[in-house]
Design goal:
Cytochrome p450, mainly alpha
Length: 512
């Protein structure tokens, strides 16, 4: 072989070596800039966290959703405001929550928060404040309390179907995965509400335990993409699916196909033929404030998919949390049953949820369930694009992502004494104390980007729990606090023994 041939064969290796060295040099320069020249360089925190997203990635990917706990440890060491990654500040001070999650002023969302789930087509994934306001305005009207009240028969019918199905398991000795059962209920409800599609999960035999893996998998994939953003463009490559250990990519693609097909169908449908059957997608299509670019099949698909994802795992986990605490605190359960019976003497003749939400003890039980179940646990940073923020002596530069964690708020012993205890009584104090607790109770976040479906979530909680506790006697089956208490942040709360799931036996069907 000639020397020329050897040189040609060696060229690709040299190019690869040169490019690798160049990448390393550029990365080192970037880290040095982040540590010493970046506008956030003055803020306290570990140098590794300030220099690279891989520090956060280690705790959330390798150690599986543990960065939320590491952040709390960092606050103990460095103080109430710290830098937790190259771009973001985190504050551990409940009194500052309303300054960040505010309804006044402009608030943008940093791209690394949402890039694993949405490339910017849905309201959730919209980064710019004004664009988000346009998209969110079309959705707010449909998720208003008035709309939810008018369509609550959908939730009532599904809750009744699920309870009838659960009652069929009475005295069979078969443990039921209630997170899966409630996941079927919430997904059926939000699908009919959003895309006018009757999925029929509640009508099927058995329960969809795979939903738990799917939603935990979404969190797993989200953490991975935040640490390695290039994976977002490569997520469909062979091997990525097995790397994240769940079948989440296939599920995401199935959702895409389903929602895209429905969007195309609705766009071809004469709106005059569907006026009597309002759904979220139809509202968007009919909204005169939205231009053609806001009504493309792809955008409608992402909007629908995001709402379906957000409205399923969070509510089903809160319902499961409530059920466990009620079945392990029989005095609380007895008091709750007695109160609900005052307005609903026959659980098979359900009342409007507006009557249920007037019950003070029932409301206190649900607030404790939301406080300890959290809803969504993922950090959702906000950035003020046109002004600096001030936290005590610290001036936060314009357009800097800032976050507070819901789990830190709800577990703060200065706000909620004995925070891990399920105690509905804490919500029944005098008016001043109730207002104090409400200020720091944020399961649906706050501000211009708060949870879109909070009114629907409340309706589902009141309706489903009222029917469950009146119609059945339930008993936990090989289920402990390790199946309930938050151990990891996987978008929703993940307990230590999440794979098994909280299971219950139906011991008795109550006759009235």
């Amino acid at each position: 072989m000639s020397s020329t041939d050897s040189e040609i064969q060696g060229s690709p290796r040299r190019v690869l070596l040169v490019l690798s060295c160049l990448w390393i040099v550029l990365y080192v320069v970037k880290v040095i800039y982040r540590l010493y020249l970046h506008p956030l360089a003055k803020f306290p925190g570990p140098k590794l966290a300030a220099g690279t997203f891989l520090y956060e990635g280690y705790y959330d990917v390798v150690k599986r959703g543990k960065y939320v706990h590491r952040i709390e440890e960092m606050h103990s060491q460095y103080g109430p405001i710290i830098r937790i990654n190259p771009q973001e500040l985190h504050v551990y001070d409940p009194t500052f929550f309303d300054s960040v999650y505010s309804s006044s002023g402009k608030w943008a969302k940093p791209p690394y928060i949402v890039r694993s789930m949405d490339p910017g087509f849905s309201a959730f994934g919209t980064l710019d404040h004004d664009h988000h306001r346009l998209r969110r305005g079309a959705l707010n009207r449909f998720f208003s309390k008035q709309k939810v009240n008018a369509l609550q028969h959908v939730v009532q019918d599904l809750a009744n179907k699920l309870c009838e199905k659960l009652e069929s398991y009475c005295n069979t000795g078969t443990p039921i995965d209630f997170e899966g059962a409630f996941g079927d209920f919430t997904l059926d409800a939000i699908a009919e509400y959003t895309i006018d599609s009757k999925l029929g999960l509640v009508d099927r035999e058995g329960f969809t335990s795979d939903l738990r893996k799917t939603f935990r998998g979404l969190g797993e994939f989200g953490h991975l993409v935040k640490a390695l953003p290039w994976l977002m463009t490569a997520k469909l490559l062979p091997g990525i699916e097995s790397f994240i250990r769940v079948n989440v990519v296939k599920v995401l693609l199935d959702w895409d196909d389903t929602c895209l097909s429905i969007a195309n169908h609705l766009l071809r449908t004469n709106p005059d033929e569907t006026k009597e059957h309002p759904t979220v997608l139809r509202e968007i299509i009919a909204d005169p404030d939205l231009g053609p670019s806001e009504k493309t099949p792809k955008r409608l698909m992402f909007e629908a998919k995001t709402i379906l994802n957000a409205g399923t795992g969070t509510v089903s986990w809160t319902l499961t949390t409530a059920l466990w605490y009620l079945t392990t605190n029989t005095d609380i359960l007895a008091r709750l049953r007695a109160e609900i019976l005052t307005v609903m003497p026959d659980p098979r003749q359900p009342v409007q949820f507006q009557e249920l939400e007037q019950l003070p003890y029932f409301t206190a039980v649900l607030k404790e369930s939301l406080r300890l179940g959290f809803g969504a646990t993922m950090r959702s940073a906000r950035a003020a694009p046109d002004r600096v923020l001030q936290y005590k002596d610290w001036t936060i530069p314009q357009n800097t992502p800032v976050s507070l964690s819901i789990s830190h708020m709800h577990h703060n012993p200065d706000v909620f004494p004995d925070p891990l205890r399920f105690d509905p009584e804490r919500w029944l104090g005098d008016m001043e104390e109730r207002h104090r607790l409400e200020r720091f109770f944020v399961p649906f976040s706050r501000g211009t980007r708060n949870c879109l479906g909070s009114n629907l979530a409340w309706a589902e909680l009141y309706i489903m729990i009222s029917q469950c506790v009146l119609r059945m006697d339930l008993e936990p089956f090989q289920t402990t606090l390790e199946h309930i208490e938050m151990y990891s942040d996987m978008i929703v709360s993940e307990p230590k023994r999440w794979k098994e799931g909280p299971r219950f036996l139906v011991k008795n069907v109550v006759a009235y």
